[in-house]
Amino acid sequence: MRLFLHELVAQQRLFWRSREAAFFTFVLPLVFLVLIGSVYGSSEVDGIRGSTYLLAGLLGYSVISTAFAGLAITLVLRRESGVLKRVRGTPLPTATFLGAVIGSTLVVIALGTVAQVLVGRFVVDAGWPSRPAELAVALLVGAGCFAALGLAITGAIRSAEGSSALVNAIYLPLVFISGVFFSVDSLPGFLQAVAEVSPLTYLLRLVRECVVAGGEGLAGALEAIAVLAGWGLAGLVLAVRMFRWEPREA
Q: Considering the entire predicted model, what is its pTM?
């Protein structure tokens, strides 16, 4: 445990030293919340106050951008630069290293969640989440799902230069199709069909059940939990088969 905590602190230092990573995964959702939340005002989306709908959406956005995109890009860059190979050759257990990397990701998501909830409450009048404890569990489930998928996708990325392009090409369309900023019902039929198989769609449903007043919480979103668990399990199986410690460009 002591070794894990030491590595976790080291991973946190590495994250916050990267200004680009800190901006895109921590600051950008806050910027979106203030700008778009101000536009929504008191209007409603799917019968929910616009700012509250947006807050729930951006909480889900933070999970996929941090646990999937950020994690995948970071690991590919470290793999291709030889960092992962060197880590594997040290006394540090690989499970401890990966656990610390994922744990650092969870810390960033937790801090971002607190910041977004506070900005949502005091800046754009989104109110407090109706079920904060269940919201924490929902975000943890989502983070686990997307972390597994992030580990899996690294096996399909062959170069450090292509990591951002491929990852962004996957997750950014899902952000818009899955209903982060607006209702899925406003999309064309073929995009609604894509949204129905997107794990982000189900994470957003789960989060909104915990954020919106009158939501049923986790008990009312068992289907969403099951779908996220299925995606997470699939990602884990692929990660075990495809994750590499050696550079692929060599």
A: 0.94
